[in-house]
Recover the amino acids of this structure.
């Protein structure tokens, strides 16, 4: 097992109480697996991703355990976690376009970062250049300032830099959200290629866009209101989902070639619950067409088929 | 880069033109007659009044048509002729200013540079340690809210008058002659400390606070978060933050010049320092219009040149002004 | 970025370095709850709990109170030669007397009044001018922006004191209102620049588009869409301009360029200095005016820092 997450619970502190962003998440990712992490805004997917590498000042690790390649990740201890960052766990952030400081050349940034992590730049430079060329960038990039690069170039540079030390786990946080469709596809293919070449062992790709995940991910984990809803292979999630939320999500996607003159595109009525004081029981209860009495009790995240887990009484029945 | 700098030069030339025109225009369009004002203050004998009036009319150029006055003004300017001082007649204004200038520069230049450097360093440190922050911050606010001449008075009162550690006035001792001798230099420094400190401390406060706030913002930026997420040590993150925070501070330096120059003027007065400040005061008190005008133009030119130098410095440190986007491959 | 190099660098520097300041961000909303009352009360909640804001405001308000009420507590006027010369503070003359036998306390409290007048009027004029020019240049763009920009840059570079020396040398400044107007007319450039850059970042937002599409004219858009969203920024700018005007006014008065028929804190310092109060050790004469300015301006700056924290949640300590 590459990554094991057990009952991970992370809250945000706010003046009005704790925002229960991630509540009791348990899942595992195997070696070489690309797992998509999907859900609507505010469902906790970004928080989950962040908590695996660097918690921000307002986040609080309430309980739960994370294990990477058999070693426990000290996610609540910032300085201890530093050991693992970049080498074992790495991230390609949402803000890749502005992740490079404007007043230093790209090469200098890479050099100073690597040297500060105890890696002699001279030794990795050839590999850095090789990988840059792999993603379609010439080694001139290293001599340039970030302002001289286009958004796409910066994103690819950040992808290369973040994976330079061959981390076991890469978290790609909404890296396609700001891109047009063809760029999205290109970036998606790059991610797969990085995994295929062994630059990265396993990956968590966080996005709200299921279409990209279908292309890129092996498995998809769907979150709703801080809780895990369903996890299965990408194929299963898209073509045979068992959780009502996933089903509604998939059916609300427009299909290429289908015209919507007669029927309206069905969304999911209602809004997600407040995470300050979430309702008891299943959090999707209020919007779920299949809700019944038992839903007042929180459904556990159980296996309903090979490699297929769902948190729903109806689905598990 | 060239476009950026040439735009700036254009504005400075325009400003210079505006300043000169304003300088020329004000005495001619202000209510009241400056010559009459002068004469009444001089309590001249009626017999000599006519002659004096004639002289001043000629000196101001009131006896020729307006447009000619304007052109003559510019012509004189290019010859470095700013007229003759009224109170120190017949010494030329240019001569008076030139003899006072070195003293003002000796105060201004170190005060500006050192306060900028020290203030930024301390401000950056304060953003790091809570203890330092809690002392630097209030001190900085008090300092930057302090009128420079008052600080000068307080320093003079404490360190020169009450505890006779430093001299209370002058740029050098009465027993020393200006020369490149050790004796002079020591006496000069001895007299220089207090007025310098008055300017330095006030400016220092402003820079320290500004930098502290900027560092805090920079530490929240995307590049800071990225570096931290990849495990970069705080030292590296702070180094980048400092480097980026310097940019707006340098821009601010250009804006601060006016305030520092104003401060230097009043502080010099407090210490009877023989620079442009005391010259200005006596010019104002004696309604020496030519001297006032000359000092004004000098200040403007000095500030414009300083602004330009700062612009050049900014181009050096901010790569964004030097290069544009090269585009994708 | 820094207003006249001081003050603004202090608190606005950081604000200007980022994008437009966004209004306080509430965390997750309860569905269905109105947002406006919450935003307002959230402001008050944070403002009153921010010790910097409270401390600064307290200091400034006490000075204001002293300025308003102080003169009523004494029957001496500031300029009359009422008593023995060079007296240290006593029960009759609370702040002592000057070398001319004038009551320093009376001078001080009337001087405070002049300071507030100059600050409010001078700062206010600079604020209005700066905001008007900044909004117009930022929103309209194009050649209007270029022209206003040129104007702003020219006035910006010229040292304020230099202009004021020239003007005041020829024009006998009779009242503090006149002085305030002159100060206001020369200190607006950095405010205009700041407002302009904020307007730039705001005008591309959707709500401005919508307002424009629904037919509002420029003035309406500025008043109803742009200004309210920058209200925190505008408030902080006013505070800095207020403080700055007081400082410039003090320098002017110290040079003897202010009104001579009344009293101000700067003029007090001028008189004290010329009468060699320094050498005589008459600290009661020259210390209070400076302390008064430090208190008012310092209080304003600290208030501003508090406001910055209130408006920008990132700076708040949890």
């Amino acid at each position: 097992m590459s990554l094991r997450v057990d009952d991970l619970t992370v809250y945000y502190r706010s003046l009005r109480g704790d925002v229960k962003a991630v509540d009791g998440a348990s899942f595992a990712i195997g070696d070489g697996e690309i797992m998509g992490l999907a859900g609507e805004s505010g469902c906790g997917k970004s928080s989950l991703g962040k908590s695996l590498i660097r918690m921000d000042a307002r986040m609080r690790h309430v309980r739960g355990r994370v294990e990477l390649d058999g070693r426990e990740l000290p996610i609540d201890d910032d300085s201890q976690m530093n050991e693992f960052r970049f080498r074992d766990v790495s991230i390609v952030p949402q803000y890749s376009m502005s992740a490079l400081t404007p007043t230093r050349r790209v090469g200098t940034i890479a050099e100073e970062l690597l040297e500060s992590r105890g890696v002699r730049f001279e030794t990795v430079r050839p590999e850095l250049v090789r990988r840059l060329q792999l993603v379609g960038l010439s080694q001139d990039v290293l001599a340039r300032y970030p302002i001289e690069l286009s958004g796409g170039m910066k994103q690819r540079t950040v992808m290369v830099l973040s994976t330079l030390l061959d981390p076991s786990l890469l978290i790609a946080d909404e890296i396609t959200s700001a891109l047009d469709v063809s760029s999205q596809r290109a970036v998606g293919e790059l991610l797969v290629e990085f995994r295929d070449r062994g630059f990265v062992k396993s990956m968590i790709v966080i996005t709200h866009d299921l279409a990209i995940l279908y292309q890129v991910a092996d498995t998809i984990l769907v979150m709703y209101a801080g809780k895990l809803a369903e996890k299965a292979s990408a194929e299963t999630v898209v073509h045979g989902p068992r959780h009502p939320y996933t089903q509604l999500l998939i059916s609300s996607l427009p299909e290429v070639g289908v015209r919507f003159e007669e029927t309206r595109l069905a969304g999911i009525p209602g809004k997600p619950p407040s995470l300050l004081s979430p309702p008891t029981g299943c959090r999707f209860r209020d919007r779920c067409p299949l809700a019944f009495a038992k839903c007042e009790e929180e459904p556990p995240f159980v296996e309903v088929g090979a490699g297929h887990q769902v948190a729903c009484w109806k689905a598990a029945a | 880069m060239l476009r950026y700098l040439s735009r700036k030069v254009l504005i400075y030339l325009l400003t210079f033109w505006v300043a000169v025109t304003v300088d020329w225009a004000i005495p001619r369009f202000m209510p009241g007659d400056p010559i009459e004002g002068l004469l009444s203050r001089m309590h001249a004998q009626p017999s000599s009044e006519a002659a004096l009036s004639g002289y001043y009319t000629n000196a101001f150029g009131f006896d020729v048509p307006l447009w000619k006055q304007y052109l003559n003004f510019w012509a004189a300017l290019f010859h470095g002729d700013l007229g003759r001082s009224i109170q120190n007649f017949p010494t030329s204004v240019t001569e008076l200013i030139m003899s006072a200038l070195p003293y003002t520069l000796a105060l201004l230049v170190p005060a500006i540079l050192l306060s900028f450097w020290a203030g930024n360093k301390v401000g950056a440190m304060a953003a790091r340690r809570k203890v330092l922050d809690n002392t630097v911050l209030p001190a900085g606010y008090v300092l930057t809210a302090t009128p420079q001449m008052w600080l000068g008075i307080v320093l003079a009162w404490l360190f020169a008058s009450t505890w006779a550690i430093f001299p209370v006035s002058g740029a050098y001792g009465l027993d020393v002659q200006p020369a490149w001798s050790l004796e002079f230099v020591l006496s000069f420094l001895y007299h220089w400390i207090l007025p310098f400190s008055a300017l330095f401390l006030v400016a220092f406060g402003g820079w320290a606070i500004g930098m502290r706030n900027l560092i805090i913002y920079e530490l929240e930026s995307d590049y800071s978060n990225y570096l931290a997420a990849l495990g970069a040590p705080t030292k590296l993150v702070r180094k980048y933050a400092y480097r980026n925070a310097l940019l707006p501070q340098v821009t601010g330096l250009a804006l601060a010049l006016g305030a520092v120059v104003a401060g230097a003027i009043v502080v010099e007065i407090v210490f009877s320092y023989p620079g442009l400040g005391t010259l200005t005061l006596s010019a104002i008190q004696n309604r020496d219009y030519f001297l006032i005008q000359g000092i004004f133009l000098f200040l403007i030119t000095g500030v414009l040149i300083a602004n330009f130098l700062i612009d050049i410095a900014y181009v050096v440190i901010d790569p964004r002004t030097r290069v544009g986007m090269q585009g994708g491959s | 970025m820094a207003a006249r190099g001081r003050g603004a660098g202090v608190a606005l520097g950081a604000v200007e370095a980022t994008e437009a300041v966004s209004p306080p961000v509430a965390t997750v909303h309860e569905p269905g709850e109105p947002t406006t009352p919450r935003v307002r009360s959230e402001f008050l909640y944070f403002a009153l709990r921010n010790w910097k804001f409270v401390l600064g405001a307290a200091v400034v308000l006490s000075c204001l109170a002293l300025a308003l009420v102080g003169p009523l507590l004494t029957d001496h006027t500031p300029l009359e030669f009422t008593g023995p010369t060079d007296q240290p503070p006593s029960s009759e003359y609370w702040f002592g007397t000057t070398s001319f036998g004038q009551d320093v306390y009376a001078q001080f409290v009337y001087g405070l009044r002049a300071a507030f007048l100059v600050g409010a009027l001078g700062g206010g004029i600079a604020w209005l001018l700066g905001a008007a020019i900044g909004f117009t240049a930022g929103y309209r763009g194009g050649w209007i922006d270029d022209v206003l920009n040129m104007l702003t840059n020219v006035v910006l570079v010229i040292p304020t004191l230099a202009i004021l020396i020239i003007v005041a040398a020829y024009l006998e400044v009779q009242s503090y209102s006149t002085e305030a107007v002159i100060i206001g007319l020369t200190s607006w450039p950095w405010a205009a620049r700041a407002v302009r850059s904020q307007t730039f970042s705001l005008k591309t937002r959707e709500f401005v588009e919508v307002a424009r599409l629904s037919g509002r004219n420029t003035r309406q858009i500025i008043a109803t869409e742009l200004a309210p969203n920058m209200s925190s920024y505008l408030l902080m700018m006013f505070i800095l301009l207020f403080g700055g005007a007081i400082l410039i006014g003090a320098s002017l008065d110290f040079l003897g360029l202010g009104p001579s028929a009344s009293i101000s804190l700067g003029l007090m310092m001028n008189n004290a200095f010329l009468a060699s109060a320094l050498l005589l050790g008459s600290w009661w004469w020259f210390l209070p005016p400076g302390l008064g300015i430090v208190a008012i301006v310092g209080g304003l700056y600290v208030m501003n820092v508090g406001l910055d924290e209130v408006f920008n949640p990132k700076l708040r300590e949890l």
